[in-house]
Write a structure and sequence with these properties.
- The complex is a heterodimer of chains A (about 70) and B (about 325).
- Chain A is mainly beta and about 70 residues long.
- Helix content of chain A is about 5%, strand content about 50%.
- Chain A contains 1 helix and 6 strands, in the order ββαββββ.
- Among the domains of chain B are: about 120 residues, no CATH class; about 70 residues, no CATH class.
- The longest helix of chain B has 15 residues.
- Chain B is about 15% helix and about 45% strand.
- Chain B contains 4 helices and 18 strands.
- The chains are: A mainly beta (about 70), B mainly beta (about 325).
- At the A-B interface, strand 1, strand 2, helix 1, strand 3 and strand 4 of A face helix 1, strand 11, strand 12, strand 13 and strand 14 of B.
Chain lengths: ~70, ~325
């Protein structure tokens, strides 16, 4: 059995305002250099239009783009 | 050779694009990501998560329409032409198994206990999935803390599809916490990244998202306790929430449990420093009133986390 043993509190970083995504966030993908946060792009609906926000591994916001 | 990111869409298809194209589009704040392609999968209806096992070279997509029965779709993946070939497809009702792991079931005023599978990650034949319980799910109470989501990190045997352990808990933090994303760190298999979203700013069922990126250590073969999800919150709560509390206190005629709890909480606030009655597991919110200001402190087994100050709006 696997166990989760520690929560790195220091790494937790709220940045909803920086994201400026009006819809809901859905998934995360972490690569060697980047953190990708994927979400829906529209408040009030479960829109199919996706949006992705990009951060570096130090949580610095680098930008976002739509995925039509 | 470029690397790709694959996303499972709600319609069941899989969308993918080169990582370099996504990075370029984001850094340009573009309205479109180039090189986006889609794989249509007829066997999948409502994707909940997608994950790739690099050891087995398998793609796993979990599908569910009711949050209780999970449909497992395991594909072989051809990296050359980005094709998916279905190898195995089966379904399992997991609600009873998952309920065994729930330490304090959340009973809503509707008497419902409904879960929803979130994202997954998949490694060496073991599936890790966030699975969150939520309350009534209707528009009027989704903003309220104690009725909503608590997430569990579930370990699933990919062969049987049955949950075998609850290895983590994402607690409420005085607002809604909906764990969604999940992935391992490519540089360190002991690190699991998660994406709980808090909705302090919610005004309706839609979620004007405020997300937290979490990084947790994930160590195998070590017995320990559950994960406590308590992010740093140093910001003052937004004015909308203050308005909500004042509104509920003054006007609510709802006799449901949730509304009653709110009213009781506000009554206690009006008399001074009290522990708020809406509790989630062993987490409590303490409200302290000074003049028209209410200070909110989240406590968790002796620790205290200052959530900021509310101003009552009459």
């Amino acid at each position: 059995m696997s166990e989760v043993t520690e929560h790195a509190f220091a790494s937790t970083k709220p940045f909803g305002c920086q994201l400026r995504i009006e819809g809901s966030m859905q998934s995360i993908c972490v690569t060697d250099n980047y953190i990708f946060v994927f979400g829906n792009d529209q408040q009030g609906t479960y829109a199919d239009t996706g949006i992705v926000a990009l951060f570096d591994r130090k949580y610095n916001y680098l930008g976002q783009a739509r995925i039509a | 050779m470029d690397s790709y990111i694959f996303c499972a869409s709600n319609s069941g298809s899989v969308t993918y694009a080169p990582i370099s194209n996504i990075v370029t589009a984001c850094t340009n704040n573009s309205n479109s990501v180039s090189g986006v392609s889609t794989i249509s999968i007829s066997s999948v209806q409502t994707s909940s998560g997608i994950a790739y096992d690099s050891v087995r070279k398998e793609m796993l997509i979990i599908d569910s329409t009711d949050g209780e029965t999970l449909y497992y779709n395991i594909f072989s993946y051809n990296s050359t032409n980005k094709s998916l070939t279905l190898k195995k497809h089966f379904n399992v009702n997991v609600i009873d198994s998952i309920n065994q792991f729930i330490e304090s079931p959340i009973i809503t005023h509707r008497g419902t206990l409904r879960g929803a599978p979130g994202n997954i990650t998949y490694k060496n034949g073991v599936i890790y999935m966030v699975y969150w319980y939520h309350g009534g799910g209707d528009a009027e109470d989704t903003w309220y803390p104690s009725t909503h989501s608590v997430g569990y990190l579930i370990e699933i045997d990919a062969c049987t599809g049955l949950p075998v352990a609850n290895i983590g808990l994402f607690k409420q933090i005085g607002s809604v916490t909906e764990p969604e994303g999940l992935c391992f760190d490519p540089n360190d298999e002991d690190i699991l990244w998660t994406l709980p979203q808090s909705v302090f700013f919610r005004e309706d069922w839609a979620r004007p998202g405020a997300a937290y990126i979490n990084k947790i250590s994930f160590i195998k073969e070590v017995s320990s306790s559950i994960l406590n999800y308590l992010p740093e919150i140093n910001d003052t709560l937004p004015a909308q929430l203050a308005t909500r509390y004042a509104f509920v206190d003054n006007t609510s005629t709802d006799t449901t449990t949730t509304s009653s709890a709110r009213t009781t909480a506000m009554n206690k606030v009006s008399t001074g420093s009290q522990a708020c009655p809406f509790k989630s597991l062993d987490t409590a919110i303490i409200l302290t009133k000074t003049g028209n200001d209410i200070n909110i402190v989240l406590t968790d087994t002796g620790k205290e986390y200052d959530l900021g100050t509310l101003v009552i709006i009459n």
